[in-house]
Amino acid sequence: MPLKKDVVVIGAGAAGMMCAIEAGKRGRSVLLLDHASKLAEKIRISGGGRCNFTNRHTGPDNFLSHNPNFCRSALARFTPQDFVALVEKHHIPYHEKKLGQLFCDGSSQQIIDLLRHECDAAGVAWQMPCRVNNVSRVNGASAGFMLETDRGTLTSDTLVIATGGLSIPQIGASAYGYRIAEQFNITITPLRPALVPLIFAPEQLDGFSTLPGIAVDAAVSCNGARFRDGLLITHRGLSGPAILQISSYWQPGTPIHIDLLPDLDVTSWLFDQKHSSALLSNLLTQHLPRRLAEAWVKATIPEQAEVPVNRYGNKALKQIAAQLHDWQVIPDGTAGYKKAEVTLGGVDTRELSSKTMEAKKVPGLYFVGEVVDVTGHLGGFNFQWAWASGYAAGQFV
Ligand SMILES: Cc1cc2nc3c(=O)[nH]c(=O)nc-3n(C[C@H](O)[C@H](O)[C@H](O)COP(=O)(O)OP(=O)(O)OC[C@H]3O[C@@H](n4cnc5c(N)ncnc54)[C@H](O)[C@@H]3O)c2cc1C
């Protein structure tokens, strides 16, 4: 006889565990299964090992989706404060780092332990590691699912897909959720790595060989989005929070715009210096690291690099100011899913109920978390979506 459960959740990550907890609390018999042998590795490595578990300022504007309104309902029903209440219930010390980002004082393992504990309290059963080989409707009927796994056959009334996105395949990410969507003729929006470093072609890196490791506070914009945060120059291109944020908006072939001196009126400052006999790169060291100032001047205005500032005309000064506020670079690509924090795109939200996360054309099939076409900015928003969408589905499965 196959093992029978009310609810099977595939994927024991952030969203899957939250959904299982809520369904278990409603008295549903729940089985949570995952193909990994270690629980919730993505939570463990998140936030530099301290898990940026939510953001106090979460709102729909912090998410990218083909349907920006889809996330509203779930976010309203499980708020950052609701997750904070859980963290406090488990006596986990935490702090706000900046911009509403909440991190554990200790280790992200504490969040995994919290979820595991809540699952146990809600009577959730586990199978890990467990590989699902096939999913089908029970006897071809319109309700119920049959799962053939490497641990035997299971049946369930409802099936929740919480298998996350494609980023960091080395710790268990897979395309399984998208494959299940395809099996049931559910549309998937185009997928690409996001919150990811941007890389340059080798010839673009010429002249920048001395710069890896340099970090500045910058404002980076692209395709209507703008982020003010740290920018880090790497051996392959650009990284740091401002770049990770803008990567979600960047399209191949288009420039990103970097304001290297967002707090300075560069035109006025340069006009104050117009009688100086110093080289521009030397003057710029008042505001930028020396190596960056030198490389930027050589790359941007090579013909004027060795000319003292008092020989520049007003037009040239204005142009230089404009370029410092709008340094345009066209990345060659991204560092890919191996380095991306999330996958942009996913199960098309038009296919799902925003109230329950249930697939409109497949009663009993639910999608939660990152597998859905809802992608958060950097800063705790992706976990908040995982908690909120898992919670929403957990009330109905
Ligand atoms: C390095 C890094 C740091 C991050 N830091 C943060 C942060 O600090 N704050 C934040 O908000 N977000 C952060 N994120 C993003 C966040 O981790 C994800 O958005 C979130 O984990 C998504 O939750 P999920 O439950 O949808 O998917 P996941 O947490 O990825 O869980 C999916 C689960 O499904 C399992 N699975 C996959 N395929 C199968 C299969 N075929 N069969 C069975 N099981 C399967 C996986 O093993 C995994 O356990 C970070 C991401 C990375 C990569």
Explain what the structure shows:
By secondary structure, the protein is α+β, with helices and mostly antiparallel strands. The chain folds into two domains: 3-191 and 344-394, FAD/NAD(P)-binding domain, CATH 3.50.50; 198-334, Translation factors (Elongation Factor Tu (Ef-tu), domain 3, Beta Barrel), CATH 2.40.30.10. The chain is built from twelve helices and 21 strands. It has helices at 14-25, 41-45, 72-77, 80-89, 109-121, 176-183, 241-247, 266-272, 280-284, 290-300, 314-325, 381-394, and strands at residues 3-10, 30-33, 52-55, 63-64, 94-96, 101-104, 125-127, 132-137, 145-149, 152-161, 192-194, 198-199, 215-222, 225-233, 237-239, 256-259, 327-329, 333-334, 342-344, 365-367, 375-376. Strands 1, 2, 7, 8, 9, 10 and 20 form a seven-stranded mixed β-sheet that branches. It has a seven-stranded antiparallel β-sheet with strand order 17-16-13-14-15-12-18. It has a three-stranded antiparallel β-sheet with strand order 3-6-5. Helix 8 runs antiparallel to helix 11 (314-325). Bound molecules: flavin-adenine dinucleotide. Flavin-adenine dinucleotide (FAD) is lined by residues 10-16, 34-36, 40, 42, 45-47, 51-52, 132, 162-164, 167-168, 172, 174, 176, 341-342, 369-370, 380-383, 386.
